[in-house]
């Protein structure tokens, strides 16, 4: 767990102090896009992965922050006390060396996932104990995604 904690990129989370002031959608703006994304995320029929892309300055970070903030404030179920709908977030940045590459992308998400969902922390630790090379930046992103992220998500 300590090794994963050291490798996880700090300051990458949507609400990090490193990213202040946080860009956020102004109330009443981008409603069509936000409602579309909320609809996808609220659907329990399928897993959803949303790839938000566009040219620089178009407002991707503001939209992503707004969506992440909403998901963090929603519980998984009414009975849940700890676990929220936000599994994790990582905001890339050209200005920060650790956040301008995918070197620790899945390690960072796995760490956040285990913090946000304590019930899978032990499984993440076991996966890393069995194969510590998963945390190396040169390890295949596919292998990292499968072992550090998808496997724990399937447990949830």
TrEMBL record:
Residues 41-151 form the Nephrocystin 3-like N-terminal domain. This is Nephrocystin 3-like N-terminal domain-containing protein. Keywords: Repeat. The keyword Repeat applies. The keyword rRNA processing does not apply. InterPro entries: NPHP3-like_N, P-loop_NTPase. It comes from the Eukaryota.
């Amino acid at each position: 767990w300590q090794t994963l904690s050291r490798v996880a990129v700090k300051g990458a989370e949507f609400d990090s102090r490193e990213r202040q002031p946080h860009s956020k959608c102004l109330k009443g703006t981008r409603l069509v896009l936000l409602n579309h994304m909320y609809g996808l995320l609220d659907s329990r029929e399928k897993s959803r992965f949303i790839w938000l892309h566009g040219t620089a300055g178009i407002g991707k970070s503001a939209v992503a922050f707004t969506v992440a903030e909403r998901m963090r404030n929603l519980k998984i179920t009414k009975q849940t006390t700890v676990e929220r709908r936000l599994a994790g977030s990582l905001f890339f940045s050209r200005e920060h060396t650790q956040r301008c590459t995918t070197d620790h992308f899945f390690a960072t998400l796995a760490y956040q996932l285990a913090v946000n969902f304590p019930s899978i922390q032990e499984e993440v630790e076991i996966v890393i104990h069995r194969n510590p090379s998963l945390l190396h930046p040169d390890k295949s992103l596919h292998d990292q995604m499968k072992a550090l992220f998808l496997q724990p998500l399937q447990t949830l």
